[in-house]
Amino acid sequence: QNSLDYIGKRVAIGQTKDYRIRRALQVLDRYLLPHIGNAEEDRIKKAYYLGQMAQKVMELALGFREPDDKDHYANKRLKLAGELFTSLFRVAFLNLVKDIKYQLERTAVRGRAPNIKTAVRADVITERIRHALATGNWVGGKAGVSQLLNRTNLTPLSRM
To answer: What GO biological process terms does the UniProt entry carry, in alphabetical order (predicted)?
Structure first.
């Protein structure tokens, strides 16, 4: 209970103790090791996984284990197309929301009635995605993610 209240004081500042504990449990379920699961039943699996991590750290500290090679491909994390497009769309959508807000504020300052057709510019998301595909520069500073396929040379096709 004390540990949950400790976490709750950081996520639900100024709330009652019961609410802080409920909120801490929600945070643990949703954000701590989400790849294991988000349900209440997954807490045991998460505790076991944290125990395995602690065991590996202790073995390393005591010299029973060698440190993992971060450059080895078994320890690399791949970002596939779906995840990259998700983050790209999220950024593009947030840009669209900011642009709509700006357009509506601009029409309000001018004293005009807001018009949704003029406030929503359809090309904001499209241009962001098109730019990322054309240049290979994606969100998060990732470069070289995509490149144009030259159809006059068959060498790139042979690598697929």
So the answer is: DNA-templated transcription
Residues 6+ apart with CB under 8 A from 119: 100, 103, 104, 107
17 CB-near residues (< 8 Å, 6+ apart): 5, 8
CA distance 85 to 64: 42
Return the C-alpha torsion angle 46, 51, 52, 57, nearest 10.
130
State pLDDT tens for residues 102-134.
999 888 888 888 888 888 888 889 999 888 888
CA distance 25 to 41: 12
Q: Where do the domains of the chain lie? A: 2-62, 81-141
Q: Mutual orientation of helices 2-11 and 17-31 as an angle, nearest 10°? A: 80
SS3 content of the chain, % helix, strand, coil (to 5): 65, 0, 35
- Tell me, which fold does domain 2-62 have in CATH? 3.90.1110
Q: How many residues does the chain have?
A: 160
Query: pLDDT tens digit string along 16-66?
Result: 899 999 999 999 999 999 989 999 999 999 999 999 999 999 999 999 999
